[in-house]
Amino acid sequence: MLKESLKLLVENNKAVLKFEGEVIFDNSNQLKEEAKQMLSKNEGVNKLVIDLANVSYLDSSGVGLILSLFKFMRNKKGTLAVAAANEKIKRVFEVTKLQEIIPVYAGVEEAMEEEPV
Amino acid sequence: MQSSRVEKNYEIACKAEEISPLLEKIFLELDNSAVSAAEIKFCLEIAAREMLANAIEHGYALAAEKNGRLKNFKIKLELQICSEKIVFKVKDPGPGFDWENCDLEIKPSFAEKGRGLKMINQVSDQMKFNSAGNKITAVFKL
């Protein structure tokens, strides 16, 4: 298993989920389960921003993880956005057309302030 | 291009942590060959990571299921750089798969899996397989 970590910072009904390291096929399933467990303990959260500032790379399984969390939030009438991706990860989003489904912001603050469409 | 042709072979264990060091070696070869286009490196990295992920996640997994995990399975790679193109090949220890019936069109989708090959196809100029389906080649025109 590659080194990775996951933190959930909650403020009222909003939360930032911070990933670190690589989010790839080797760890994405475990990260997905851990993230869902954390979110399940914070039922009031209805706006989630995934902070990728400390993620060096995210592959197709990482895209799957984001979509899984998007569906998880949608099932509880919440929203999900992604922020602070580096140029490589933005390119992965572009190739997979993820940004046509999920809002992608330059920074976490911008994503937190934005009202859901 | 300073050198007209580079041909390198690599072999890695079927482990995720071997991918990043391998990519560093490949990028060093590109730099030494004066392949400087950031766009090519972006595309090669996306494709290479998906090719290696598939080799480990599917090829190795199937080989290990059939022959046991204790066997020392390896992934074999070839890198060719010439003045017109970069060719990157990955051969996994698995039995292969039915690549002829894969849908390679990328559409916005909520599906959580099934993007790897589509991404390789999208970022490379050509993607091809051997008949068994356990060796994939991606070609990038310079």
TrEMBL record, chain A:
SUPFAM superfamilies: SpoIIaa-like. Residues 4-115 form the STAS domain. One of its GO terms (molecular function) is anti-sigma factor antagonist activity. Gene3D superfamilies: STAS domain. It comes from the Bacteria. InterPro entries: Anti-sigma_ant (IPR003658), STAS_dom (IPR002645), STAS_dom_sf (IPR036513). PROSITE patterns: STAS. Pfam families: STAS (PF01740). PANTHER family: ANTI-SIGMA FACTOR ANTAGONIST TM_1081-RELATED, ANTI-SIGMA FACTOR ANTAGONIST TM_1081-RELATED-RELATED. Belongs to the anti-sigma-factor antagonist family. NCBIfam families: ant_ant_sig. This is Anti-sigma factor antagonist.
UniProtKB/TrEMBL annotation, chain B:
SUPFAM superfamilies: ATPase domain of HSP90 chaperone/DNA topoisomerase II/histidine kinase (SSF55874). It comes from the Bacteria. Coiled coil: none annotated. Transmembrane segments: none annotated. GO terms for molecular function: kinase activity. Residues 42-139 form the Histidine kinase/HSP90-like ATPase domain. InterPro entries: HATPase_C_sf (IPR036890), HATPase_dom (IPR003594). Keywords: Kinase, Transferase. This is Serine/threonine-protein kinase RsbW. It comes from Halanaerobium saccharolyticum.
